[in-house]
Write a structure and sequence with these properties.
- Helix 1 crosses helix 3 and helix 6 (278-288) runs antiparallel to helix 7.
- The chain is α+β, with helices and mostly antiparallel strands.
- The protein has 3 domains: 8-130 and 149-186, no CATH class; 190-269, no CATH class; 326-468, Heat Shock Protein 90 (2-Layer Sandwich), CATH 3.30.565.
- It starts with 7 loop residues before the first helix and ends with a strand.
- The strands form 3 sheets. It has a 5-stranded mixed beta sheet with strand order 6-8-9-11-10.
- 50% of the residues lie in helices and 15% in strands.
- The radius of gyration is 49 Å and the shape is rod-shaped.
């Protein structure tokens, strides 16, 4: 199992998305920390200012007026108590000590009279009890035994941080303030999350387009290299785009042009040599007719016929390699029927099974030469052959089976080499030039297909011609 994608496009996208997501998560974490600190400071400053204002309001009042004022101002999120409580003791090293020190400094600055205050910051829990006020609930006038008259309490206070401050008024009375900051005030910043999501989606979209745009020339170059093996005369690559892409396309086109020129020169040279051999062969044939020795005359004629067959096969091979024939729809069943008829006139037995679903786009003369060579080869060694046709949307497959002795496994690939024969000598009984299978495979490759040989279990050889449907 490969965890890393194999394509360059997938790898680039994976790297870009990984770096982007990591940067987004780090930025979001930093923002949340700074936001929480800012909210705490802002909430603490507001609470400190309100507490300082209430302290200045309570200072000149008597006890009865203070309780009345406290009952009015003691409401969520600020609770005020006038009853005596043990002084606040801030434990050293507590996690809220920094916030407590900051709150105390802000509070003393707002008070401005040098008055000290004991401050503690604790984790507050929700208190789902009814709100008591002066006169008791529903005007009943009852108070809990632990609450002093005039005190008030939250109803359903939300959990969060509790800023508790204790200080003495000018007459020595102790007042306790409990300012709670709900955790809801520091909740998730949905607008920030939405903006980050939009930014992430935009960057992902741009990354996909950019990576696809950057890797498209590589895909075009790979496709061109693959097609070059099937069609050396394909259209050259467009030399456009970035500098690196233009240089690669220009180098590829230069290589293709050199290969085309090299093949044309060698093909033209071999074709010219093969063609020029016809003239001396014809002269030798005419001179052989003047011989009086009949046996010698027949031997020379057979040698000349074999040489002429070799020349024809070489010319056919050259035409197969350098074919200028145009691609057109071809009725494969009609082509096979004509080859079947030609073989029947020479005493060969050809059986056709299956059917082609429709015309095939190919080069008619080249395919006729390819199939003719395969059928002749099967009849030459097997006396009879069966042609099986399998057709679908992807490919047209033609299987040519004979009843001959087959080919040794080690020779199945070598028989496609030019002028290679399994026999040690060119027997006239099974004779040939050794170019029939070479021409057949070159025609198959010219159409983007393949030609394979393998021995049948029941005996005989099968040639499998696969022609892709474009």
């Amino acid at each position: 199992m490969h965890l890393v994608p194999r394509s360059l496009f997938s790898r680039l996208v994976l790297v870009l998305l990984g770096v982007l997501l990591t940067a987004q998560l780090i930025s979001f974490a930093i923002h949340m920390v700074e936001r929480g600190e800012a909210l705490s400071q802002a909430s603490g400053m507001q609470a400190a200012q309100r507490i300082a204002d209430i302290v200045r309001l309570l200072d000149p009042l008597d006890a009865a007026e203070r309780r009345r004022i406290v009952s009015v101002f003691s409401a969520p999120p600020l609770t005020i108590k006038l009853d005596q409580h043990p002084p606040i003791v801030q434990e050293p090293g507590a996690s809220q000590s920094t916030r407590a020190a900051l709150f105390s400094a802000v509070l003393q600055r707002y008070l401005g009279d040098g008055r000290t205050a004991a401050v503690a910051v604790t984790q507050a829990q929700a208190i789902p009890t009814p709100a008591w006020s002066k006169g008791g609930p529903m005007g009943m006038g009852a108070h809990p035994p632990w609450m002093a008259p005039g005190a008030a309490m939250h109803f359903g206070s939300a959990p969060g941080l509790s800023f508790i401050a204790q200080m003495r008024l000018r007459d020595g009375a102790l007042v306790t303030f409990d300012s709670r900051q709900s955790e809801q005030s520091a909740g998730w910043p949905y607008r920030l999350l939405a903006s980050l999501a939009v930014l992430l989606a935009a960057v992902i979209a741009v990354s996909l387009v950019a990576v696809r745009w950057a890797t498209r020339p590589l895909n075009a170059l790979a496709d061109a290299a693959d097609e070059l093996g099937r069609n050396i005369n394909r259209a050259p690559l467009p030399e456009t785009g970035p500098l690196e892409v233009t240089r690669a396309a220009r180098a590829f086109n230069t290589m293709q042009a050199r290969l085309v020129r090299y093949l044309r020169e060698h093909t033209a040279m071999l074709a010219a040599m093969s063609h020029d051999l016809k003239t001396p062969i014809t002269r030798l044939r005419l001179r052989a007719e003047l011989l009086e020795d009949g046996e010698l005359k027949n031997k020379i004629a057979q040698d000349l016929e074999e040489m002429e067959s070799l020349v024809r096969a070489t010319l056919d091979f050259m035409r197969g390699v350098e074919s200028a024939e145009k691609v057109q729809p071809l009725d494969m069943m009609a082509l096979l029927a004509s080859l079947q008829a030609d073989a029947g006139e020479l005493g060969g037995q050809v059986t056709i099974e299956g059917n082609a679903s429709g015309p095939y786009l190919g080069r008619p003369q080249a395919l006729k030469r390819c199939l003719g060579n395969l059928i002749d080869n099967a009849l030459k060694y097997g006396k009879a052959t069966t042609v099986i046709i399998e057709d679908d949307r992807q490919a047209l497959v033609i299987r040519i089976q004979d009843q001959g002795p087959g080919i040794p496994e080690a020779e199945l690939d070598r028989v496609f080499e030019p002028f290679y024969r399994i026999e040690g000598s060119r027997s006239r009984d099974t004779g040939g030039t050794g170019l029939g299978l070479t021409i057949a495979r070159s025609v198959a490759q010219l159409h983007g297909g393949t030609l394979l040989l393998h021995n049948l279990q029941e005996g005989g050889l099968e040639a499998v011609l696969t022609l892709p449907r474009q």
